[in-house]
Each structure stands twice: as structure tokens, then as C-alpha cells.
């Protein structure tokens, strides 16, 4: 084999090794510093210039949450990711750092939602991932986060998710019963075609006027006759009531009235005497209680 062939083989092997090293570094970087796959760094740059309301609207489209106003699960997801993104922007993180924070939020939540991972296992996986961000692939490249930033992320996840771990487990793992807001009832309605119409609706008009309305005509005739005679129905009733009252009072004489007044006076005097006696008894008891100490002091 010539020297040129050997040299070409060495260069080919070197290129292959370089490609393998680059691929392994990329795989290691992807595992140690994962990025959120739902949005790119360019989209994150666009979101950085928006308000929190506009960011929420964009996340509705990104996450596909159409029923967040009526579904508790979708509302919790939207609040979880929007709050995490806004916190990362307030910490002045770069696009790569923000994407890692969002991927970390996604990973921890998927462990609850899909894997039903216990609290301890999920916390250990989070600790391994956040500690991997402190390691650098080469001395020339800085790590993704420093110690202070890693501690800030840990504190945020502790307050936002790990303190409410049981609530997230209940929200995503417990079946929700559908509440019945209404109830159907079947009510049988009588068909008018199968029954005879009521008498007043089924009879002829002439028969109704001749047999059903004479009573009303008779009453109207009496009223008109009284008006023609100069008598008003209301005045006659009042006069009759006055006459009845006058006859009731005429049944009593002067002696009956005196007897009633005497009984009322005696009853009032008895009540006053009892009240006066009770007041005297109370005063006597109060005076006696006051005099007892004076008697004891005088005896001494």
C-alpha cells in the first residue's frame, strides 16, 4: 500500500472519529441540557417582547388549550407554563436557558401525568438534571447555569410544583365524575282529540246565554231596580250595620256599665298593689344586706 493511500485512510478515520465525537457530545448535551421542543429559540425571542396577556394567548395556541376557561385541567396547565416562562424572562435568562427551564417544567409534569412517578423519584430526577447544567462539555465553554441560577430554579420548582405535588397528582391521575346539571323527565300530555271538550267550550252560544247567564242578568236587574228607586246598595248596607250596633248597645242599662267599670277598677288596683308590695320587698332585702356588715362591725 502506498503512502498516499495510508494517509487518506488515516484522514478518513480521523473524520469519522470527529463526527462520532461531535455526535456523542450533542447527545450528551441534549441529555444534560434538554431544550423545549414545542417552540424554537426564534419563537422565544419573539415572546420576550410581549406582555403577559399576549404570552398567555400564544401559549393557548402552542399547547392547544381551547377549553381552559371551562376545564380545570387545561387552566392549570396554562397557568403552570405561562408562570414558568414569565419567571424565566424576569430572571433575564437567555433563550437557551429559558428553553431548558420550560423543558424541565415539561419533564417534571410528564412524570406526574404519564408515569405516575412518586414524589421522591421525581425529585431525584430533577436534582440529577439540574446538577448536570453545572457541568461543561469543554473548558472553553461555560456551563448553562451557575450555582446561584441553579438554586433559583430549584426554589421556583419547589414553590410552584413540589409543594403542591398532591394536588397535581389528584388533578391528572384521579378520574373525575361528570356532574349532571339537568335531568330529563317524560310527562304524558292528554290529547284533546281523544276527549270531549269541556261543556262551556262545547255547547252552543245560544244555549250558554240562555241557561248559564240568567243568574247574572237577575242580579243586574236587582241593581238597576234599586237605582231606579233611589237606593244605593252600599248605603243600605252601612245603614243596616249602624242599626245593628245601636240595637246591641241598647241591650245594656246603666247598672251593667257600672258593674263592668267596678270590675276593671278592682283588677287594676290589685295589680298595682302586687307590684308595690314586690318593690317594697326588694328594697327591704337590699337594706337588710347592707345593715348586716354594720351589725358585725359594731359587735366587734
The share of residues in extended strands comes to under 5%
Number of domains: 2
- Radius of gyration computed on alpha carbons: 50 Å
**Could you give the order of the helices and strands?**
HHHHHHHHHHHHH
Number of helical regions: 13
Describe this structure in words.
This protein is mostly helical. The chain has two domains: 154 residues, no CATH class; 75 residues. The chain is 71% helix and 0% strand. The protein has 13 helices and no strands. Helix 3 packs across helix 4. The longest helix has 46 residues. The radius of gyration is 50 Å and the shape is flat. About 3% of the residues have low confidence.
Write the layout of secondary structure elements.
Elements: H1 3-32, H2 41-47, H3 52-63, H4 72-90, H5 95-113, H6 119-132, H7 147-160, H8 165-173, H9 199-202, H10 205-211, H11 214-228, H12 233-250, H13 254-299
What are the salient characteristics of this protein?
300 residues; mainly alpha
What is this structure, in a nutshell?
This protein is mainly α and 300 residues long.
Amino acid at each position: 500500500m502506498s503512502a498516499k493511500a495510508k494517509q487518506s485512510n488515516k484522514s478518513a478515520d480521523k473524520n469519522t472519529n470527529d463526527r462520532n465525537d461531535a455526535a456523542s457530545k450533542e447527545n450528551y448535551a441534549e441529555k444534560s441540557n434538554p431544550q423545549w421542543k414545542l417552540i424554537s429559540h426564534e419563537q422565544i425571542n419573539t415572546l420576550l417582547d410581549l406582555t403577559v396577556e399576549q404570552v398567555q394567548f400564544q401559549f393557548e395556541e402552542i399547547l392547544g388549550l381551547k377549553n381552559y376557561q371551562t376545564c380545570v385541567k387545561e387552566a392549570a396547565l396554562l397557568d403552570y407554563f405561562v408562570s414558568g416562562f414569565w419567571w424565566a424572562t424576569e430572571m433575564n435568562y437567555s433563550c437557551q436557558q429559558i428553553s431548558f427551564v420550560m423543558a424541565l417544567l415539561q419533564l417534571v409534569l410528564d412524570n406526574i401525568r404519564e408515569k405516575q412517578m412518586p414524589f421522591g423519584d421525581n425529585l431525584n430526577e430533577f436534582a440529577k438534571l439540574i446538577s448536570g447544567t453545572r457541568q461543561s462539555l469543554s473548558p472553553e465553554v461555560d456551563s448553562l447555569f451557575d450555582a446561584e441560577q441553579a438554586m433559583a430554579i430549584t426554589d421556583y420548582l419547589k414553590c410552584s410544583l413540589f409543594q403542591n405535588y398532591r394536588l397535581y397528582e389528584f388533578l391528572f391521575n384521579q378520574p373525575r365524575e361528570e356532574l349532571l346539571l339537568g335531568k330529563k323527565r317524560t310527562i304524558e300530555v292528554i290529547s284533546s282529540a281523544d276527549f270531549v271538550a269541556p261543556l262551556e267550550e262545547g255547547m252552543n252560544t245560544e244555549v250558554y246565554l240562555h241557561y248559564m247567564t240568567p243568574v247574572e242578568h237577575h242580579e243586574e236587574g236587582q241593581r238597576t231596580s234599586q237605582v231606579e228607586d233611589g237606593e244605593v246598595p252600599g248605603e243600605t248596607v252601612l245603614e243596616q250595620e249602624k242599626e245593628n250596633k245601636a240595637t246591641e248597645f241598647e241591650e245594656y242599662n246603666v247598672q251593667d256599665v257600672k258593674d263592668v267599670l267596678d270590675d276593671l277598677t278592682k283588677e287594676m288596683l290589685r295589680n298595682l298593689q302586687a307590684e308595690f308590695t314586690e318593690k317594697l320587698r326588694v328594697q327591704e332585702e337590699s337594706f337588710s344586706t347592707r345593715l348586716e356588715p354594720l351589725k358585725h362591725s359594731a359587735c366587734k
